[in-house]
Write a structure and sequence with these properties.
The chain has 123 residues and is mostly loops. Helices cover 7% and strands 8% of the residues.
Length: 123
Amino acid sequence: MLPVSDVRRRDQFPPADVSSVKFYLDGCRRVLTADAPADEVPAQYAVASNPNAVSFLANFDEETVLVGYPKAHLWVEARGSDNVDLFVLIQKLDRFGTPLEQFRPRRTTPRWCTMSAITARRS
């Protein structure tokens, strides 16, 4: 992770001053934690349920920049089936838990430049 005050163009990837942070899934509390949970609790759901998904939250105490490619090492079992569709989605949420669909990176996009403005200019 990189301090927000230090966001700028880098000469290499990954940047030399970025620290790699490993998070663990806590199946009991449904959160990401920096420390491995003491107990292994499976996160499971009924396929016919709505939502038919498992989700985990991570809150950062300070503004954080994620750099690079996220990786997930998961142990998955599809009980009662020999087939599974697995998707890993990372979303930024607002303070109410609503997914943010568009947000612009700092200092890279002019204030007037939105996705609709870019689309309108191209057509």
